[in-house]
């Protein structure tokens, strides 16, 4: 790629970005699109355009995003989102603060040396305009030159800035989490613990429920409130879903009926339906009557099933409720039984994020599943490189022909060639990467993880390796191998040295990659063109009732599990190249700056979080930033060595320092993310908690029916 | 060594053992020796010879040791001792149960093959009578022979027996520990927790005490009782020790005075003392008056110092007391503060085993110390082999001369040779191994470990490596290397194969080593000749007062830290040779059988435990037995491979099975040894605990004085 085309593509991306911004400003002003651009605010019952005061300035949303305080973000989108912004802003400030030194110092030092120009005149391959950019990198410094000292000092500066800001972020996030947990408002999950691996009911006790009840009442005579046994409610769930489906159909039929009452035909047309297979055959009946009948029928079935479930289908797990937040917090982290594979207790999570069917998996089965799933993921990481290699092979078909001329006849068949080169492998890769997060979430849930948020974290941890292996290693390795292929032949150095020496070249690729990401990617994110089109299409042709429309614009959540991993890839790239090719830093600043701004707007207006884990994601994020930092330090160590800089070993303290820092953080901060803290739980509550309300909030919807007599229901759930 | 001398030395050892037994029977009947042979019973206030009913049968003690139940052992010597016997009996039953199959099957199979006899006729080195014993080993089996299947099956049998019995032992010890912790008698440590890393007192609070008080009262408003701040009482300790010294001197002077009142001189001679340096110079004064004065003086000083210590020298650690056993158990394992390096809480230990000055060491300093100490120990393990190598070199001086004739002139100087060969290195080694447990205990305490029992466990963990490296690897490696030295020259196989092939030879050495250990070692243990002589000597020439006599026969404790490690060495040896040379099993049975019998007698009658950790040693012991088992399985795998047995790989499931077993045990049983269990703590108490008594039991003796007014004292300790 020559310099002109590089600048051109940057300009194109910027143009697309500006276009998308203007589209966004234009479309978001139209009231009809409010449900696409401000669903979070609408669902929270706020006025969508409040604070934007109808000014015709297309950049007003930027100002709003900038001035919104962290407290407002937490109020509108939760602590998890706020922690995500701490991550973005921490990386951003690391880059800005290091750029202040790195850019004015390193660029002049690099550009005034002349190694590349000299060498390329005598080099094997033709001089390209990539060299123009390469003049700005460490690769342009003559070996053993004293100029390397500038890079050396910057290495230290960058590391120290990063460690300092990470420490500050750790403290801030810990504080955020503590504040959230100290909240005087009642959170049901703070009064409950999950009890798993309940042993078989001994003789003398009749049900699991009584057993759990007597066990916990003996230990907590004063603060034990009630227990809720996890039941096998799959059948009840099925009936309940059926019922909900009928209710929707009924609502739809009624809307259709209402709409048919035109002026010409004021009595309207009652919709009809065929009762046979898929509504295609069978006798025609009145739809409204039909669904009313079905609903009544199903309600009776559901009530019967609920009773059976409550009494006969109790399983070996339970939720136990306490009247005190401190006791619940303390119970959640204490060992209750002599044998650790019985009565294992853990903190409860929000009702909406409990994965009920995982609660009943036994202790050692969970351990086994964890190992099996990790093995499967490891295999996937290793062997998905096989299609990637195929893709590389096909995209450089031309190169392949040069190396092995005998395949030329095959390639000459133009139709075949097009298919091979463009469609098949790309399509496979796109489908693979689209399905990957879902697959990983499914696998993580298979491990027996009890809560949605933990499953998301586990999936995110696994996803992390794919873009890293794919983009970072793939491009670095692939690009380097190809370019140095001929050089190696007559100049056999170690592979590693070739790899690292070509880092500055690859930097150019990453510059374009970053620009694409932040201009086009974030532009599309902001303008929400796809959801907008989908919404308008659905509203016009499919949705009839209010509920159906609401479903059509449901915005989903921020998508932690993939977003953090993709950002982390950028962190690795920017960190590793920061000193070698400092020009990448402004690109990193733009990525994290634009990301912060646009996602803040989206978090405030669009996305609705599906759960709240109070920032438990942080240790996960922090560990990976730290790993990137250590990777950067080791890369620099090797790179300095290859530049024959004799003081390279003076960089060794850096990774050691990072490891010590990581160890201290893991000891000091992480446990507070894993386990509840008693002094936080002991903060006084605003009001005395309504225990019955707390208890009821955990009842799964399929077992919670207002129609069933409350008295009986309570009795059947917990005989206290 | 030929067969005759082997049998002779066995006979000699057995003779010594019988002699010592008769000496024991004879001496223990004499009432004057009761304090040497029955100190534990005397200190417990029991009749020493109760149950032995003066029968003149010299083996009556064996019967008593055999019929004593585990409950009685716990009553007389504590749970820790009972757990030690579970260890001995488990290993014993593994050996007995495997011997039932191994001996009748393997010995005939081995002895009827003729490989050794055939080979040794053509071998490089002369046929010795060691071969007689070697005929009974796996080494006598012809390569690839089908007879190896017998050994193969025995391998499985031994492993399965070991795993089964270990599992049973784990369950039994867990039950023992739970029973001990459920004891309805009040144990002060069950009502207290240790709080370390108390942060600096914030503005607004005056003392650490008030700070701790308000912190814990907020979290446990109903069950918090009081706190005791750890103080810097070094000065008070010094004064208190001085005072105790004076009291002893006074008692001695009074006894001397009493004894001087003979019939001839009924008024007696008042002893005098010189007040100058070491009682050698200065003016002569009346001893009794002098010490009375000093005592009064010191008491005043102590009282003043106690007040200063309580008010001014409060440190950053405390004991916090709760009125409920469950709350204390739960608090001890809960996270209290946001930052984990502040307010770290752990279970309290018995007052007598708290290492007070370690409580105040800060969190990260403890971590750092742990790593430093482990580094030092690792260095010691590696480099103490240097003197061992020297010793090997000198003891085989003759061999050395053969290999390097030029040193012969030096060796010819007889005086020099004797010194070199016999005295210097041996003496160094003996002193080293005598001091080693003390050094390791000192190092473990330097880690910042808060309790004596934990320090002992840590020291024992470290000690384990020394005999293993020394005896097992030293002898196996050393012996093998020397014997195969010439063979290697013209037949270069891998070192490993030579090592393992010579295992049967080394077995002979270990047979003698074991016999020495159990006949002579346990004989000396039983007869207690050294403490007997020391006691009679001291009583005759040194002790004057009752207290001094009591000190002279103080029996000490069982000495866990070295005993378990030394037994573990035998476990490794016997396990590894069990199938290769089954003849070692009877020796192992004798070692653990005699050990069980004699130490049970000693535990019941002699040793007084200095602390009670309710069997927390078990995971430590269990892990090491399991490691021995895995080592045995890997050795067998290699050995079968070298015998060219093609089905050797069928042994691979064994170590995998052992690892899974270890994993399951670590998850299922170990946490109950680390942390208190709530359902155990919730067992009802016999009586309502007297909290003031519990609180007082933790006051260090130097700060606990009856003379100080109780009211004031309480106030100064805890202003509630």
Automatic annotation (TrEMBL), chains A, B:
It comes from the Eukaryota. GO terms for cellular component: plasma membrane. It is found in: Membrane. InterPro entries: Csc1-like, CSC1/OSCA1-like_7TM, CSC1/OSCA1-like_cyt, CSC1/OSCA1-like_N. GO terms for molecular function: calcium-activated cation channel activity. Pfam families: PHM7_cyt, RSN1_7TM, RSN1_TM. Keywords: Calcium, Ion channel, Ion transport, Membrane, Transmembrane, Transmembrane helix, Transport. Its main location: membrane. Belongs to the CSC1 (TC 1.A.17) family. This is CSC1-like protein ERD4 isoform X1. It comes from Arachis duranensis.
């Amino acid at each position: 790629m020559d310099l002109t085309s590089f600048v051109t593509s940057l300009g194109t991306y910027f143009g697309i970005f500006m276009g998308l911004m203007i589209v966004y400003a234009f479309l978001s002003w139209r009231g009809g699109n409010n449900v696409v651009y401000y669903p979070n605010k609408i669902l929270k019952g706020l006025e969508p355009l409040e604070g934007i005061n109808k000014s015709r300035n297309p950049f007003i949303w930027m100002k709003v995003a900038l001035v919104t305080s962290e407290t407002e973000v937490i109020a509108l989108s939760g602590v998890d989102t706020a922690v995500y912004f701490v991550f973005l802003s921490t990386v951003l400030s690391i880059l800005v603060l290091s750029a202040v030194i790195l850019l004015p110092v390193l660029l002049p030092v690099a550009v005034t040396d002349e190694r590349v120009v000299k060498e390329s005149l005598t080099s094997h391959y033709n001089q390209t305009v990539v060299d123009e950019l390469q003049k700005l990198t460490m690769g342009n410094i003559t070996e053993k030159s004293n100029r390397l000292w500038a890079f050396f000092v910057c290495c230290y500066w960058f590391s120290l800035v990063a460690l300092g800001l990470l420490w500050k972020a750790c403290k801030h996030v810990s504080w955020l989490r503590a504040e959230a947990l100290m909240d005087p408002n009642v959170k049901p999950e703070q009064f409950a613990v999950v009890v798993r691996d309940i042993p078989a009911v001994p003789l003398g006790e009749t049900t699991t429920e009584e057993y759990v009840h007597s066990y916990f009442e003996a230990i907590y005579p004063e603060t034990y409130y009630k227990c809720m046994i996890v039941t096998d409610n799959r059948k009840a769930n099925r009936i309940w879903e059926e019922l909900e489906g009928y209710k929707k159909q009924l609502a739809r039929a009624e809307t259709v009926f209402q709409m048919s009452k035109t002026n010409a035909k004021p009595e309207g047309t009652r919709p009809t339906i065929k009762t046979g297979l898929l509504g295609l055959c069978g006798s025609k009946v009145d739809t409204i009557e039909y669904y009313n009948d079905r609903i009544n029928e199903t309600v009776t079935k559901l009530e019967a099933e609920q009773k059976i479930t409550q009494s006969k289908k109790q399983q070996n797990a339970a939720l136990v409720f306490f009247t005190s937040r401190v006791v619940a917090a303390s119970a959640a982290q204490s060992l209750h039984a002599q044998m650790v594979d019985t009565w294992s207790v853990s903190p409860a999570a929000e009702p909406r994020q409990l994965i009920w069917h995982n609660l009943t998996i036994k202790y050692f089965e969970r351990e086994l599943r964890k190992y099996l799933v990790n093995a499967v993921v490891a295999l996937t990481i290793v062997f998905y490189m096989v299609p990637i290699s195929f893709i590389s092979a096909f995209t450089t078909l031309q190169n392949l022909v040069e190396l092995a001329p005998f395949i030329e006849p095959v390639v000459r068949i133009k139709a075949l060639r097009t298919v091979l080169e463009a469609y098949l492998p790309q399509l496979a890769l796109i489908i693979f990467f689209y399905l990957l997060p879902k697959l990983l979430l499914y696998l993580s849930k298979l491990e027996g993880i009890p809560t949605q948020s933990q499953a998301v974290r586990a999936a995110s941890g696994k996803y992390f390796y794919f873009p890293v292996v794919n983009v970072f290693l793939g491009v670095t390795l692939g690009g380097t191998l190809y370019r140095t292929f001929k050089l190696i032949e007559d100049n056999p150095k170690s592979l590693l040295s070739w790899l690292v020496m070509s880092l500055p070249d690859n930097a150019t690729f990453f510059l374009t990659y970053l620009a694409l990401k932040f201009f086009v990617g974030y532009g599309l994110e902001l303008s929400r063109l796809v959801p907008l089109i989908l919404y308008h299409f659905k509203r016009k042709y499919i949705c009839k009732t209010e509920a159906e429309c609401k479903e059509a614009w449901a915005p989903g959540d921020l998508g932690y599990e993939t977003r953090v991993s993709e950002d982390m890839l950028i962190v690795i790239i920017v960190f590793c190249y920061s000193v070698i090719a400092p020009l990448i830093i402004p690109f990193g600043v733009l990525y994290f700056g634009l990301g912060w701004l646009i996602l803040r707007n989206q978090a405030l207006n669009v996305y609705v979080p599906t759960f709240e884990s109070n920032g438990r994601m942080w240790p996960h994020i922090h560990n990976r930033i730290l790993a990137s930092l250590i990777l950067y330090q080791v890369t620099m160590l090797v790179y300095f060595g290859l530049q024959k800089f004799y003081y390279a070993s003076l960089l060794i303290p850096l990774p050691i320092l990072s490891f010590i820092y990581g160890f201290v953080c893991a000891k000091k901060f992480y446990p507070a993310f894993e386990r509840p803290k008693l002094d936080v739980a002991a903060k006084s509550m605003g009001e005395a908690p309504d225990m019955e309300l707390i208890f009821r909030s955990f009842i799964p919807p399929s077992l919670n029916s207002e129609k069933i007599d409350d008295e009986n229901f309570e009795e059947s759930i917990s005989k206290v």
